[in-house]
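Q: Is it fine to ask for two folds in a single conversation?
A: Yes, each is treated on its own. Send the first.
Q: Here.
A: Result:
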Amino acid sequence: MPIAIAISATLAILSLAVIFGTDMSVAVVQRAVYRELDDRTMVRVVGRGHFYGDRRFPVIGIGGTIATAATVVLAFVGVSPLAGTLAAAGLVLLLIWLALFATIAKPINAVLTAAADAGEAPSDARALQDRWESIIVPRAILLGLAIALLCATLFLV
């Protein structure tokens, strides 16, 4: 059982680390770059990024979520309530991240992707981007903490 837990936690960590790294990159670097661009260029760059990200990241995110949930179950069953609780706390943080993404980021992604495809810059493009960016630091923190909790779970295996 410890091997199964280690495998599921490691897969979860690796998957979530991809998304965490992307969120951190946006929070630390890309936000500053977007502020230097004119609206049309910003919409084109951001919209195209969302076009590809919204098609490629779900497989990674779903895999990480499934691996995290598996870690929770396996840890409760096979190791200890403490390991299970740590993994479950990580899963809760991941689900909060997903809720933020689904309710705030994803709808904005769709608008900016459509605008980029049409070669347009909506009049509220900056406001949309500001709203999207308003949750990027909390999203990065949530994923960072979830990954840390999964790492802590590995110490108990």
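Q: Second one now.
A: Result:
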Amino acid sequence: MPIPSETTTDLLERLQHQVALFARRAEQTRLGGVGKARNSMDRAAYLLLNRLDNEGPMGVKALAEGMGIDSSTVTRQVAPLVDSGLVKRTSHPEDGRAVVLALSPRGRTRLEEVRTSRRELMSVVTEDWTEQEREMFTDLLGRFNSALADYHLGMTSGDEQSS
């Protein structure tokens, strides 16, 4: 691997600093949105509910694998969602012994409130951006998130291979 030039080093320093600032500001606002839904759903709950909404009912293992986290973490994060009625546990349609998690009607309503609030926040924060700038930032951020996910997947599978 070539040694980065001073320019590349400076650029990577600015990038890591901006990512650190973004992480702090995202945590400060929880990207909660505006209005009454602001700060009312934590990141883990939002991501779990969003996945169940987009992909339908699934078991804990499938949910964990798709999110790149372990089953015990998903079990811990889902428990309060079940307790609050946002997620329901149901029997697997083909194997009644297996349990699947599904978004409840209450969960779907709550998720849509939060999504709407977060879209409003993104609109406010980027109100002086062009649609092209919003699209470019979204594409680059998606690419960055995919690269991070791939990196962490490689780290995990590398750990398993060395065990």
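Q: Anything structural to flag on that second result?
A: Two points. The chain has a mean pLDDT of 86. The radius of gyration is 19 Å.
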